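User: Just a sanity check before I run the rest of the batch. Below are the structure tokens for the first item. I only need the designed sequence back.
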């Protein structure tokens, strides 16, 4: 029996993951390649490698105290992470190797890099507890990714089946962890750099990543056809705002996401209640008797 090449797309099953663009995406199996590894199979993993380089470069900028560059490098890593899986599906180039590289990249870009940058920026001024807060964030990010990978083959996922996510995704958690840093750069106020304030915030974001609360996914946002043009206009304005006032725009985006979290919990509870009522009605519905021919009487 010929051993399976780890770079070769494999058939779907418990061993197949496929590189993901995010936790919301579901992979599709790719066929086997008759010859060697094609260029289209290399491109997604190359983008993932670029994301790793961006995350590590963010750490390098943090060491030299270039905080804006450090943030931009980690944000670039998040952007690359968001497109590598989609490109893999577009090129039909999913592989187990790409999935493993993607998961490792996420742990570096959204766990290790933010934890170290935040420690060098503020938490190092808080003896012991500041380092523990950074460690907790990195560990919770890795645990979240491990939980996602362990559940990828499970059929029973209540949050996912309803269009929600479990906890805050790793890229979003990293972005939210930098919230005090956005405010510090945008306003220049030193109060946002206070170690105790940053430590409490980082611990809270770490807990949210591994929590079991329902959070909104991109699939939850389905604008009506009547406001489609307005939605496109808002997206264009958001992009323009990121170019002209990036830090205040990121502050607003984080604030909106945090404000929508209670709504996500409430809306998922409503979905669960409707499902329970539907299941109860189905159990109460009498079974129609059949005659010997199998035809309802």
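Assistant: Here's the designed sequence for the first item:
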């Amino acid at each position: 029996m010929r051993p399976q090449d780890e770079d070769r797309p494999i058939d779907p099953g418990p061993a197949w993951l496929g590189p993901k663009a995010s936790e919301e995406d579901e992979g599709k199996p790719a066929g086997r390649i008759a010859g060697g590894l094609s260029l289209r199979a290399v491109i997604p993993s190359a983008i993932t490698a670029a994301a790793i380089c961006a995350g590590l470069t963010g750490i390098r900028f943090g060491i030299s105290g270039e905080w804006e560059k450090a943030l931009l490098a980690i944000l670039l890593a998040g952007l690359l992470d968001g497109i590598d899986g989609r490109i893999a599906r577009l090129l039909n180039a999913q592989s187990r190797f790409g999935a493993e590289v993607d998961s490792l990249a996420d742990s570096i870009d959204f766990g290790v890099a933010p934890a170290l940058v935040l420690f060098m920026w503020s938490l190092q001024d808080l003896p012991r507890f500041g380092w523990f807060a950074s460690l907790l964030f990195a560990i919770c990010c890795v645990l979240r990714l491990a939980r996602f990978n362990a559940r990828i083959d499970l059929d029973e996922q209540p949050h996912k089946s309803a269009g929600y996510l479990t906890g805050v995704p790793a890229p979003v958690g990293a972005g939210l962890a930098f919230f005090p840093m956005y405010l510090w750069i945008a306003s220049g106020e030193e109060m946002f750099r206070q170690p105790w304030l940053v430590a409490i915030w980082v611990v809270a974001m770490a807990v949210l990543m591994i929590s079991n609360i329902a959070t909104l996914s991109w699939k939850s946002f389905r604008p009506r056809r009547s406001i489609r043009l307005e939605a496109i206009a808002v997206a264009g304005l958001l992009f323009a705002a990121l170019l002209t006032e990036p830090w205040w725009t990121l502050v607003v985006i984080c604030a909106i996401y945090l404000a929508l979290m209670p709504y996500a919990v409430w809306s998922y509870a409503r979905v669960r209640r409707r499902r329970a009522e539907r299941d109860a009605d189905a159990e109460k519905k009498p079974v129609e008797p059949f005659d010997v021919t199998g035809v309802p009487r």
